[in-house]
């Protein structure tokens, strides 16, 4: 997962897109077992084959970028949201548990009302889980689009700049 190795895997993936197959890819580069088995923790990315430039005319290859899918726009919108659900959920459970403890020790029955915070904590956790699941569902399509933009740019096409959310996907 080292940064330089990620760049090397990216270069090998782009070379394959241009029809240049590497002679040997060591298993450690992709995070596979020494015997070469397994899927690998960091496989070399796969890109669509790129049409090469005509050597005689020097014209750039024709590369087209499909329009941005709605799922990618949705991923960009929700990628930076969330992350606070666990912390707030635990705080609500803690506060919901402290209220009855104070009520018992001081004799004030009003502290029992803090028990209402426990179901609220469950609601917060469920909302966080749903948001995380939605991001996980959108991630593969956003990653595929980001890789398509990089491949089209490498092929010489004019492409829009990647958003910070999509760049972060490629950096992972």
Write up this protein.
The protein is mainly α and 172 residues long. It is 56% helix and 0% strand. It has helices spanning 3-17, 27-30, 70-78, 85-106, 117-154, 164-171. The model has no long low-confidence stretch (mean pLDDT 81).
Averaged pLDDT, please? 81
The count of helical stretches stands at 6
Query: Largest beta sheet, briefly?
Result: none
Estimated helix fraction: 55-70%
Order of helices and strands: HHHHHH
Number of strands: 0
Percent of residues in beta strands?
Answer: under 5%
Distance, first to last CA: 8 Å
Give me the Rg, rounded: 25 Å
Query: How does the overall form come out from the CA principal axes?
Result: elongated
Structural class: mainly alpha
Q: Can you tell me the residue ranges where pLDDT is under 50 for at least 5 consecutive residues? A: none
What are the main properties of this structure?
single chain, 172 residues, mainly alpha, 56% helix, 0% strand
């Amino acid at each position: 997962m080292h940064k330089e190795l990620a760049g090397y895997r990216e270069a090998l993936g782009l070379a394959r897109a241009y029809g240049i197959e590497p002679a040997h890819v060591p298993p450690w580069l992709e995070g596979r077992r020494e015997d070469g088995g397994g899927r690998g923790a960091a496989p070399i990315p796969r890109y669509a084959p790129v049409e090469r430039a005509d050597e005689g005319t020097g014209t750039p290859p024709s590369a087209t970028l499909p329009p941005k899918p709605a799922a990618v726009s949705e991923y960009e919108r929700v990628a930076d949201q969330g992350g606070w659900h666990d912390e707030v959920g635990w705080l609500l459970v803690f506060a919901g548990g402290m209220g009855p403890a104070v009520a018992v020790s001081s004799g004030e029955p009003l502290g029992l009302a803090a028990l209402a915070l426990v179901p609220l904590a469950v609601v917060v956790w469920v909302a966080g889980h749903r948001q995380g699941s939605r991001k996980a569902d959108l991630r593969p399509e956003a990653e595929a689009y980001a890789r398509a933009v990089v491949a089209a740019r490498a092929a010489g096409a004019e492409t829009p700049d990647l958003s910070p959310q999509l760049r972060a996907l490629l950096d992972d």
